[in-house]
Amino acid sequence: MKRKVITTSDGSTSIEMEEWGETYHSIHGAIQEARHVYIERGFDKINKPVIKVLEMGFGTGLNAFLTLVEARKQGKKVEYHSIEAFPVTEQESSALDFSALYSTKEDELLFKQMHQCSWNELNEITPNFNLHKIHSTFEEAVVNQCFFDVVYFDVFGYQFQPDLWSVEIFKKVYDALDTTGVLVTYACRGPIKRVMKEVGFTTEKVEGPPGKREMLVAYKL
Ligand SMILES: C[S@@+](CC[C@H](N)C(=O)[O-])C[C@H]1O[C@@H](n2cnc3c(N)ncnc32)[C@H](O)[C@@H]1O
């Protein structure tokens, strides 16, 4: 399916799936949404010196880069695993602009390195941030069990890929989470909440990012 790089309302870029009109992030602001959903409601809630993250959909690498920046600020270490079946091309990744997040010239290089590093092995991006990009579909990916502190569930909308908001996929991430683990997602539909509950999650609706009233946080315990 054809994709194009777009600019969102906070000046940061994202990607649009042209046939669907579905974007990788909110058009109201990619950085703003990603920070609210995944960092503030997910990463920031984990009170550990080393945090293990599982992301569903590496995409532009924005969530990964925001996590690196936040971990650096908080003096934490991160092991970041991210599943992606359809990686962005080199042309797409060089057209992405997340420069608002860069505090030095080196940050731009770190972002590039995240895209250029090899798949299916752990790469040291900085001494405090290791990245394991898993080139696979969500359906086929094999992930560690009882291992992750937080899951960033960032798949395309329910109306486009309902099969990814299924018992099978949520069971996979439920099993991958440590007992105190938490899952965050931008979505909040009733059927999604019901599937989460079916696999054992306790769900909580919280305030969404600008442009979206609510989002979901799900706890394994
Ligand atoms: C909403 S975007 C993710 C955005 C990403 N987290 C970011 O920060 O840019 C959804 C991602 O899921 C990927 N994807 C779609 N179907 C998939 C599947 N069946 N298995 C694995 N990845 C898939 C897409 O290629 C896309 O990168």
From TrEMBL:
Q: What is this protein called?
A: SAM-dependent methyltransferase
Per its UniProt record, what PANTHER family does this chain match? MNMC-LIKE METHYLTRANSFERASE DOMAIN-CONTAINING PROTEIN, SLL0983 PROTEIN
The cross-references to InterPro entries, in alphabetical order and at most eight, read: MnmC-like_methylTransf (IPR008471), SAM-dependent_MTases_sf (IPR029063), tRNA_MNMC2 (IPR047785)
Regions annotated as coiled coil: none
**Which NCBIfam families does the record cross-reference, listed alphabetically?**
tRNA_MNMC2
Q: What keywords is this UniProt entry annotated with? A: Methyltransferase, Transferase
Q: Which domain of life is it from?
A: Bacteria
Which stretches make up the MnmC-like methyltransferase domain? 147-220
Species for this entry: Myroides marinus
A GO molecular function for this record?
oxidoreductase activity, acting on the CH-NH group of donors
Q: Name one GO biological process term.
A: methylation
